[in-house]
Design brief:
The two termini are about 35 Å apart. Helix content is about 25%, strand content about 30%. With about 160 residues, it is of the alpha+beta class. The chain contains 5 helices and 5 strands; from the N terminus they run βααααββββα. The chain has helices at about 30-40, 45, 50, 65-75, 150; strands at about 20-25, 85-90, 100-115, 120-125, 130-140. The chain has a domain at about 10-30 and about 60-145: Hotdog Thioesterase (Thiol Ester Dehydrase, Chain A, Roll), CATH 3.10.129.10. Strands 1-3-4-5-2 form a 5-stranded antiparallel β-sheet, with helices on one face. It is elongated, with a radius of gyration of 19 Å.
Length: about 160
């Protein structure tokens, strides 16, 4: 990674209201096991089929934090992309996502605030035709970097 040039995401001047990105992800066992191992979250609703079968959900559900991770990685990698930073998020989870389900997540730029160089991105995630994730992210897109050669040559007039 070090020494390899990476393309940064879109700068605020390159973004427009209405820009969007959509992706579909299938939640696999390995995704849930990685989450549980990373967070040490042992909620039986997430992993125990016998417990979950006795709840209103009837089967294990995907942790809501995993849904945040899917959406935030789409922001970090695609819209606006590498170099951006999520400043805040406001999300709801009206319906559960179950193991082995597909979730379709769509991001859309709904506001650009040039005065503080932030954008608001609306996120909607659907699974089995039901809304599973909805809300907004406040994001600071990648900063416009000054080239190293331009700065190093400033002393030469």
């Amino acid at each position: 990674m070090i020494g390899k040039k990476r393309k940064l995401g879109k700068h605020i001047q390159e973004l427009a209201v209405g820009d969007s990105y959509r992706a579909v992800k299938t939640i696999e066992d390995r995704d849930i096991l990685l989450y549980l191992g990373l967070t040490d979250d042992a909620n039986p609703l997430y992993i125990q089929h016998d417990y979950a079968s006795q709840t209103p959900y009837k089967q294990p559900v995907v942790p809501s934090t995993m849904l945040i991770g899917i959406a935030s990685s789409m922001v970090s990698m695609h819209l606006p992309g590498p170099g951006c930073h999520i400043l805040e998020h406001h999300l709801k989870y009206p319906n559960p996502v179950y193991h082995y389900s597909e979730i379709e997540v769509e991001l859309e730029v709904v506001r650009i605030q040039e005065d503080d160089s932030t954008i608001t991105i609306r996120v909607i995630g659907k699974s089995d035709n039901l809304t599973a994730l909805e809300g907004t992210f406040l994001v600071k897109p990648a900063a416009e970097l000054e080239s190293l050669t331009a700065r190093s040559l400033q002393n030469f007039n």
